[in-house]
Design a protein that fits this description.
This protein is of the alpha/beta class. It is built from four helices and six strands; from the N terminus they run H-E-E-E-H-H-E-H-E-E. A six-stranded mixed beta sheet has the order 1-2-3-4-5-6, with helices on both faces. Strand 5 and strand 6 form a beta hairpin. Helix 3 crosses helix 4. It is globular.
Length: about 160
């Protein structure tokens, strides 16, 4: 990512696509990027049920994201380990505390920068999620399909 502004535009775009495909009933014009300095999740929006925040994280190791952002060349070509979901990243999200009164949901998205299938990602992050959902009322995987990881009773949305 080149900067917070660009990151915010990308996150809003990913969120809107997720919301559309998941069939969330969003109040038109309500999704907006939260200020990262206020300790709030990435996106705020109004659903028909009320206000909800969404935290986004990419199912891709941070080193790979940095390599892509900085222009990969032959000397720093990512290895398969770079193109891997980071359980540590998901764990860090689960340990966060947000200063909001509305529910918070986590979206783990792929954005085409992982070589892993949805099932492989689920197998890697499910043990982390099984230890607790942290501050999140729902946890989603937005990959090849939209899959609700927590609570696990409704696994697939499309």
């Amino acid at each position: 990512m080149t900067g917070e502004y660009e990151k915010g535009l990308i996150e809003l775009s990913i969120f809107r696509l997720f919301a559309e495909q998941a069939g969330l009933k969003i109040i038109d014009g309500s999704p907006r990027k939260s200020d990262p300095n206020e300790g709030k999740p990435d996106i705020f929006c109004l659903l028909e049920e009320g206000p909800v925040y969404f935290e986004l994280t990419e199912a891709c190791a941070p080193g790979f994201v940095a390599a892509v952002s900085n222009g990969v060349n032959k000397s720093n070509t990512p290895t398969p380990g770079h193109v891997d979901v980071s359980e540590e990243t998901v764990q860090k999200k689960l340990e966060k505390n947000y200063h909001v009164s509305a529910p918070v949901e986590l979206i783990i998205y792929t954005a085409g920068r992982t070589a892993l299938s949805d099932e492989a990602i689920i197998n890697k992050v499910e043990p982390v999620i099984n230890n607790g959902s942290g501050p999140f009322r729902r946890i989603w995987l937005f990959g090849e399909k939209i899959i609700q990881l927590y609570p696990a009773q409704s696994r697939q949305h499309n």
